[in-house]
Amino acid sequence: MNIRQALEQREKEYLSPYAAHSADSMGRMREEEQCDIRPVYQRDRDRILHSKSFRRLKDKTQVFLTPEGDHYRTRLTHTLEVSQNARTIAKALRLNEDLVEAIALGHDLGHTPFGHAGERALNKLCPLGFSHSEQSVRVVEVLEKAGQGLNLTVEVRDGIRNHQTDGEPATLEGKIVRFSDKIAYMHHDMDDAVRGGILTEADVPRDVREAVGETTGDRLDFFIHDLVSTSYGQNDIMLSSPVDAAMKKLREFMFERVYRNSEAKNEEIKAENLMETLYEYYMKHLDRLPDDLRKLLELGDSPAQIVCDYLGAMTDRFAIAKYDELFVPKSWHG
């Protein structure tokens, strides 16, 4: 018995009967030899962590575009907070930590520059539509490693695809990540909004504060504890009814005061216009796309999809630099 097999046996002895066991994975898109040290979900986690798309998350907007200050979240720090929440919950429920970590680290790989402003722009422009959850799956299946993809397991790809509110993950680990994503972004987006002077803790509706806590830290702790206590021993991941209602009310408050706040989002129209201009340019100049994407064109992918692949992968800084290079006049040096 090698190390991987010993770890798989330990999972069967320790994890909940409702957990996704590594040895029982439905496998990968392309069959490959097993690692003798790492179970499949740990191996998927490592592949995501070492991918180019993961590294690019550090320069992608979470909520506030190009904020002044070092402590505002980026898409990368959001991803790490989701992963930490998910691992805490999975460990308490004796579910598969490797699987939740892999899903959490990969769930936003397909997110655009400029946060949801960039996503809205591409969804409006592309006849195929654009969803960052579907694009995240495309990243790991096709775009990474110059068109080879990461060849992740079925369970990890399912969790990535279904991490949004309307998704229905096939595993409890995927459901943990779906909740962890919401808990994380409401916690840290409120923290950033307070830091940016968009709101104060006192602005949170009193009934929500009385139900789930007076500070962002209190609420994070409360939501995670409630999720664990309500889901413990169950073949489902859920909040208790009153806490679920409080979360929905808090989410509505965040959309009203932060996500649609004109002061917080006053640069988003510029970001959408920038994305639209770049989209129209590259649709007319497919020859300016990178070689690996042009190869996908030759294999039959649509020009609109390939242009979205290119723009969606950009960081905020790279998108602005490309716009500057293509459309802003430069001084003549003689």
Explain what the structure shows.
The structure is a single chain. This protein is 61% helix and 0% strand. It is mostly helical and 334 residues long. The chain has a single domain (3-259), classed as Hypothetical protein af1432 (Orthogonal Bundle). Helix 9 (172-195) runs antiparallel to helix 11 (216-231). It is flat, with a radius of gyration of 21 Å.
Give the low-pLDDT segments.
none
Cα gyration radius (Å): 21 Å
- Superfamily (CATH H level) name: Hypothetical protein af1432
Whole-number mean pLDDT = 94
The best one-word shape is flat
| Helical segment count | 16
Topology:
Layout (H helix, E strand, L loop, with lengths): L2 H12 L25 H10 L2 H5 L18 H18 L4 H10 L8 H11 L6 H16 L6 H8 L10 H24 L10 H7 L3 H16 L9 H19 L8 H17 L6 H8 L4 H11 L2 H12 L7
Helix pairs in contact: 2-5, 4-5, 4-9, 4-11, 5-8, 5-9, 6-13, 7-8, 8-9, 9-11, 9-12, 10-12, 13-15, 13-16, 14-15
